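Notebook, bench 3.
Goal today: get a predicted structure for EamA family transporter from Streptomyces cellulosae so we can plan the truncation constructs. The sequence was checked against the plasmid map this morning, with no discrepancies at the termini. Length recorded as 305 residues. Pasting the sequence as submitted so the record is complete.
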Amino acid sequence: MRPAHVFLAVLVAAVWGVNFTVIEVGLDHFPPLLFSALRFLVAALPAVFLVGPPKVAWKWIVGVGLALGVAKFGLLFIGMDVGMPGGLSSLVLQVQAVFTALFAVVLLGERPTRVRVAGMAVALAGIGVAAVDEGASGPLTGFALVVAAAACWGVSNILTRKASPPDSLNFMIWVSTVPVLPLLALSLLLEGWSADLAALRSLDWSGAGTVLYVAWGATVFGFGAWGWLLHRHPASTVAPFSLLVPVFGMTSAALFLGESITPLRWCAAALLVGGVALTSLTPGSPRGAGISASNHDEPARTKGG
């Protein structure tokens, strides 16, 4: 890769890592489901009128929109709202690579290599260490919700692989149109009209800035730049940069939010990042030729929040 392309890959990882700190700030302004709905609303508009019509079937757009937008981000934002630290969230979410590999075995008939199975075991050990660390300092409910969010991300990864979108930015913008109404409906049902209205009435520059960052920075720029890199380089070259996301996530949370990084958390980080590297960067053993092409793209799905 050219130095400029390396810089862009690192920049995307930084934007995605810092995104978790921005989410923490945004949750001080909005109820979590409303915040998530606003993220996708601002990401979709006006971009949906600029990227052209969808380039894959609507069933894939709706499926990924529900799994990624409603389930994954809804659970993530609620988990962080009930106490899961942003830096730790950026780390724990990386277990989505393990869920993706497991779902590929069940749903796509892939036979994982021994190295990949070892990677899953190492990553799951990291999740165990992170759970012990979080259990000693905070509620495990938020931790469990973020792990569930990672599982939903794994489902969306499988759907995305089946969809095989030729234009990742076009796909992500159209996917962003799907979660808005379901998230708004859930917010009204679970968070209440009065809480949503109060958050919107008290909107200030700080709150607006968090929405713009998670929508245009993490979603539009992040996915657009990542897709641009994947069009010019093999997925196996680009994907390792995604392992920098929890590094930037934990560092930014420590710098700006005062989150402590305990020795147990460092241990969890080493296990998770190492396990995810083995899991997502090692090709599986596909059962048929049709899965082989999808398998080549899998590392490209290991992204940040």
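The chain has 15 helices and no strands. The two ends are 24 Å apart (CA to CA).
Flagging this for group meeting.
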